[in-house]
């Protein structure tokens, strides 16, 4: 939509053993070739656990696979005494293009607040990674009807004080928390309402050219059967896919249906 290249990104979360991870990338590549998916029209990215990224890099770069890859999180810091953290610099050196920032599972289980999310966006940009900023409301705010205000407030806080030049490559992912891993999914109208509101707010925050260039993904129980109607929504430019990205044939049919 709007001249933006579609993006389908697979968030593996903490799944697959090392062998399964490599097999998935190879089989996905074969399946996409087999289905003659036009990867100029739709970009495909995988987001493995940190421990698989080096091997994914070897496969993608060695065999020249037309897949992008990235990480599910990064440290807000660049180096130093931060035990257990992984810096944007490390990820960039492994050839990552993307990094999720503020996924709802990080916000919920690891206490990530908006200020930390903002710092992580800046850390990503410092190392030439495209941050995929995840925002989304919980069930209560969807039910009470303040979901748009809640999600726009997350966007405001994550981009506070920043301009278009501060966040090159930014991608947004609208992921209603009640739809992640639940089998529940927002319909095209709900996804469209939020994507349009997000693009409008991006225009205010970053200006019209950046707002038009930013890809806005939908995520939350997206399946091969549901992806086409979601990506047909004018302001939705792709999908962030969890569970349905773990099976190569299934993910390939989802991507085929999305392009
Ligand atoms: C996700 O983790 O970003 C996600 C959307 O998961 P699922 O597709 O499994 O709901």
Automatic annotation (TrEMBL):
The UniProt keyword set, sorted, is: Cytoplasm, Gluconeogenesis, Glycolysis, Isomerase
Record EC number: 5.3.1.1
Cross-referenced InterPro entries, in alphabetical order? Aldolase_TIM, TIM_sf, TrioseP_Isoase_bac/euk, Triosephosphate_isomerase, Triosephosphate_isomerase_AS
Active site per the UniProt annotation: 103 (electrophile), 175 (proton acceptor)
- A Pfam family: TIM
This protein's major location comes to cytoplasm
Cite the annotated pathway: Carbohydrate biosynthesis; gluconeogenesis; Carbohydrate degradation; glycolysis; D-glyceraldehyde 3-phosphate from glycerone phosphate: step 1/1
Q: Which reaction does it catalyse?
A: D-glyceraldehyde 3-phosphate = dihydroxyacetone phosphate
So where does substrate get bound? 11-13, 181, 221, 242-243
One GO molecular-function annotation for this sequence? isomerase activity
- Annotated transmembrane regions: none
Which Gene3D superfamilies does UniProt cross-reference here?
Answer: Aldolase class I
Q: Where in the cell is it found?
A: Cytoplasm
Would I find Repeat among this entry's keywords? no
Q: What does this protein do?
A: Involved in the gluconeogenesis. Catalyzes stereospecifically the conversion of dihydroxyacetone phosphate (DHAP) to D-glyceraldehyde-3-phosphate (G3P).
Say which family it is in.
Belongs to the triosephosphate isomerase family.
Tell me the subunit arrangement. Answer: Homodimer.
Q: By its UniProt entry, which NCBIfam families does this protein fall under?
A: tim (TIGR00419)
**Name of this chain's protein:** Triosephosphate isomerase
